[in-house]
Amino acid sequence: MGSVLMRAHHEQPATRRVLAQLELLISQRLAGAVHGDYQGFFPGPGDEAGEGRLYVPGDDVRMIDWNLSARTTHTHVRDPIRDHELDVWLVVDLSASQSFGTRGGEKRELALFGAAAFGFAATWLANRIGAVLLFDGESEVRPLRSGKIHLQATLHRIAQLNTRSARPERPVGRTDLRPALTQVGTVARRRGFIAVISDFLVEPGWANELHRLSQRHTVVAVELVDPLEMRLPAVGSLAVEDPETGSRLTVDTLDGQLRERYEEAARQQRQRIAYIIRNAGAEHLQLRTDQDWIGQLVRFFQLRRHRQYGYRRSSWVV
């Protein structure tokens, strides 16, 4: 479906038709994992404290009620009463590095699919949706609004920028995710839900901004991965180019030691990304171009829904 979507970008009617097909696919596969217990899905931590209960390992220590704990001589927490009108923000990295993929599709397609999945799930629950789109070293803010028409306009804009990132006019340098994270922290005035969609192959220093967001909002970091980034095929001499910096390199992929060093470096890089996300207090979802992306999202949403307490942070590499 992804390749069809990219070919349809040049004609607005075709783009609308394919986005409608995408909505239908998401509705068929995802709706069952979303509808039902509102509190179990987009757990927006409210400002009003609810009933107290005994602390269990894994609870957020910020929820500890020290007065109640002192009276009962046992540690108690108070679960916040969830907001039923939640602000959902999408931070979508549409930089040139997303125009990379193998037979299963490209990462930029996954970025659109992930944004659509979180967006449609939010509209089903009558939440407001906003977006910060990162491209060509710049960012664009789509303001908070409710309704499917606003979401479809946002997805259409992502599709347009995807086409632009697939044909970059010139290298703009390594992507810096920090300004986009800072910007969404500024415009997201109410506590809410933020999905950060990126391959996280960006300039260092974004961990602090992600941590600041997680202190106030529920944050999910959606990591986009292609298998060729993890393992080099043995195909002989291979010319590679960094789409963001323009640097080029020719490597001999028949060199077994080179492939082993590459795989080890890639493994350590992904481990660092996962550690940063987890240490920042965000949830972690990894989407791969060679796997069923909608199936990965369904499993993630089902796991979220079945957790007893929505504000715990975990890593779901599914």
Automatic annotation (TrEMBL):
Location of the DUF58 domain: 52-271
Source species taxonomy: Bacteria, Bacillati, Actinomycetota, Actinomycetes, Pseudonocardiales
PANTHER family from the UniProt entry: BLL2464 PROTEIN
Pfam annotation, one family: DUF58
The protein's name: DUF58 domain-containing protein
